[in-house]
Design goal:
The complex is a heterodimer of chains A (375) and B (389). Chain A has 375 residues and is of the alpha/beta class. Chain A is 39% helix and 15% strand. The relative contact order of chain B is 0.13. Chain B folds into 3 domains: 38 residues; 224 residues, MetI-like (MetI-like fold), CATH 1.10.3720; 68 residues. Helix content of chain B is 66%, strand content 7%. Chain B contains 12 helices and 8 strands. In chain B, helix 5 packs across helix 8 and helix 10 packs antiparallel against helix 12. Classes of the chains: A alpha/beta (375), B alpha+beta (389). At the A-B interface, helix 1, helix 5, helix 6, helix 7 and strand 11 of A face helix 2, helix 5 and helix 11 of B.
Amino acid sequence: MRVWRLIGLATLATAALLLASGCSLGDDDDDDGGEAAATTGATTTGGSDGGGGNLLSTVQSRGTLNCGVNEAVPGFGFVSQGGDFEGFDIDYCKVVAAAVLGDAEAVEYKPLTAEQRFTALQSGEIDVLIRNTTRTASRDGSEGATFLTTTFYDGQGMMVRADSDYQELEDMAGATICVLSGTTTELNLESQFQARGVEYTPLAFEDNDPLQQAFTAERCDGWTSDKSQLAGIRSNWPDAQGGPDGLRILDVTMSKEPLGPVVRDGDSNWASAVDWAIIATLQAEEFDISSENIDEALESDDPEVRRFLGQPVEGEAFDPGLGLEPDYAVEVIRSVGNYEEIYNRNVGPDSALGLERNLNALWTDGGLHYPPPYR
Amino acid sequence: MSATTAAATRRPPPWRDVRVLRVAFQALFLLVVVSLVLFLLDNMVFNLRRLGIETGFGFLDQPAGFAIPDSDFRSSQSVQDAILQGARTTLVVALTGIALATVLGIVVGVARLSPNWLVRRAAALYVESFRNVPVLLIIIFLYLAVFLRLPPIGRAIEWVDVFVLSNRGLVVPSLAATGSTGPFLAVVALALAAAAAAWIWRTRRFDATGQPHHRVLWALGVVAAIVAVGFLATGRPYGLSLPERGDLGVAHGFRLGPEYSALLFGLVLYTASHIAEIVRGSILAVSRGQAEAADALGLSPFQRLRLVVLPQAFRIMIPPLANQYLNLTKNSSLGIAISVYEVTKVTRVSIAQGSPAPQAIAILMLIYLVISLSIALVTNLVNRRLALP
């Protein structure tokens, strides 16, 4: 009897707890739940249409940005020998943190595989995904993802061993080709080879590490990925395998790959804040403002520059209403730099990757980057 | 009537009545479980809708878009076909793995009890080293350190036309249909039926007269004879497909890929080490008197094992063996680490390419459930056959 009563009490207590927590969770559907949601829920206007989020204030009260990144692509997102995250995408995590939190180092990096990334984004584990992710219609449509301004215009390429005599994809009939699974690259590979009527065997790995092992062991004849990634891998190729000269990237472009940051659907405040943080780097390059001359730029008389940097024009600082500090661009440029600096530091002609600007030049130089006006 | 009313008056109040409490608590428990499940389900559907993610199963009919190597699957086929192709690979790995692990496990388990010092110690070394390492590590080690280290295709090991071994797999000759195979397959079915008849006939004769039955030999002989005659009579419908090495791969023949081999052998080596312990324990559990009685009858050591000890040990080992079979089946999902396109890999790729994760994972769990329950069903049937009445 006693045992029964104990069990009964325990069951009742559990049931009550579950029901209570169930109700509260059901009522307030914030992804992050918990205290942050409770404290910030009142301060923002909430969303306009049912699924309103308030990630911007959640991130600001948390004080750190959870950024989903790559850890295995030199130049874009990788862990340096000192154990720090480095690369083009990593710098953009810093840009967002500098704009939103005023501190470029307040980033919690979450390394993700290609297959994990959208699940991590949907579940709220990360606030923003900056992991060389290609914008496509179905990702926009059915992954619950919102793609923002493209940071890097890329194309899919094919890397082979330098001693092989492939020149184009048609030469690769019967070859085995290594690819990362869960990427647009995997789908392009299939459609490109099918369109050309070339037989091949795909070998898709979850990580670059076993893929590199397989490629080194001559298990596969080609390695396909975004050209920028291939350049990064080639630049880091171990000397025991012949160094960068042991590999050759074919002169074919198999696809369009616009890479950019991604946020969850349904929170347009957050999306705009992240988007304009990115745009600020492009705008800064257009205005020729860099981390070196930012202090002089602050003294500029040009009203457009003053408006961009949040400096008073006729006594009042321009606030576009993004939920960011009016002078957020100053912190971004000061601590991370403009687009040109970020590009050159990580992937530019003088870096190990040696990629020319080409499509990634500003529109004024014949490239595709065209920041919308800041007013 | 008066007796029941008297009993009723003696009944304790409901909150102290065991019978009432039992039912009440069970009902409450059920309520809690059901409401929890409903809440989680509702929460999931609500949040998926909010994010604009599909909540139905329409994605199964969408074209998959990705390719599956070493299969007839084409990327224009549906996601459903892709998952089924993956389930087929899982099933093949599981069944081959179970068969090989059982044989190896029994051999090693018996060897652990061998009077020969070297055999006994070698078996113990094998069991202890494989049983105590995570199976994922064994699989990755076999892949990276053994199968990928075989010579590349340009320097493949060849032995006339019989096999080609490289890090793109082992290719052996296979049978290829050269004409219509229907009549021949009918002959094979006939041969199997005849073999079954021969088996029953020899068993009856043995029961009646006590003559040695040799039923295995008889059955094999009947099959071989009928199939051979049928093969020639139906105009040789199968030819031998010999491997031919090219620059990039091997044409014809049957190919056992390095990824698949690493998974299969990893699972077999790991599971067999557990099975060996089960076999050893079960043999030791057979009463010593049985073995002594067999010795007294003048049976050879092998006959003692096969006719007296093992049949009784089997009865003990079936339930734990079933457990290992289920483990092997579920562990086959580790093939994802080395790019084996079994059902988990295929499902994950399809999720990454746009299938909604909750539904796809639910289907994946259902597939494993069906495979595992089928294996459990078979082992339970065997167990019931062997159990003492």
